[in-house]
Fold this protein.
Amino acid sequence: MAMRTDDWTRAKTSGVNPTQLAILELLEGRTDGLGVKEIAANLRVSQPTATDSIAALGRKGCVTKRGGETDKRAVNVGITPEGLSVLEVGRSSQSVAEQSVDALADREQEDLLVTLVKMIRHLQEIDAIPIQRMCASCRYFAPFIHSDAAKPHHCNFVNAAFGQRDIRIDCREHETADPASRAATWDAFQQG
Ligand code: SF4
């Protein structure tokens, strides 16, 4: 309930509704944009609902359509600078959910993040949600390859080691690994 209230508060502050805000958050950092079908699947809403919300965001100048000159099915929706400004306005104050996470000790925050990753992965496995842009499904992720306990993981995109608390659950550089690599990476992550 607190998180839902957070969504409404941020949306109201930003001048959009929660579904529109969720669409903008989904499109942020996706330079190629997303198709309506992908947006609907990620938000677990119907395509007509997604279409209506996208149209409303378009009227506000927050999103624009890209591509599709030769194939209408290839039209993607991308966020505009106005859309990014709307997101910034919504992030100007800390949500109650963020405050409750901040109240946890560092180790508890880390455990919460790992638990969240496991829950998201399970939701992906049972097809409840599409694959998210998490390290755990990324072709660049190499878990537990370093002996440094503070930074055991490696990101091959930036070629740098990082720690458990820096695992990403929505990374714009994410590229989905093939199923066999995802399974092997997950095993290594679990065993670590
Ligand atoms: S590119 Fe992003 S998602 Fe992939 S391993 Fe690096 S930090 Fe994680």
